[in-house]
Amino acid sequence: IALRAEALAGRLPAADVASGNDTGLDAMVRTELSTLRDGMIEVYRAVSDSGRSTDVALVTAVESPTLARDTVRASTASADRIASRVVMSGEETATEDQLESGGALVRSAWPIRDADRLVVGAVVVSRHLPAPIRAEALRATTAYQRYQSLFILREPLHGFFLSIFVTVTLL
What we know:
This protein has six helices and five strands.
């Protein structure tokens, strides 16, 4: 998801994002969405008023027809928050929103920059993970974390085996 968001943020014309030209962006977003199953893409532009912090405004949002309805309802406020965070910080971010169905909505947001490297907006790419796939992903993550924790014991075990080898050799 992060790679899609990064690529799309680099391809979207910054001038269209800054001006809020949804017709210029809609075709590109729909083309990208056609390769994303159970997904959603939202493009936001940065809006700044004098004396106030920068806010975001939705330019266009396109969702996959296979996306579950509870996913769409749960996503609007979350997408606004993540887009605002990206516009304010200028750095990409990712989140995972839990859904009532037991699944998750995995999101990645990237800043859209103009030629001067100023942030003019953000693109949020989301993908729905059904409950069974999410459970398997959590299981795999837990197993990997347990595997990585074994490396902490590597040096003590190495020292223990070396001391046994030296002891047997000296006898």
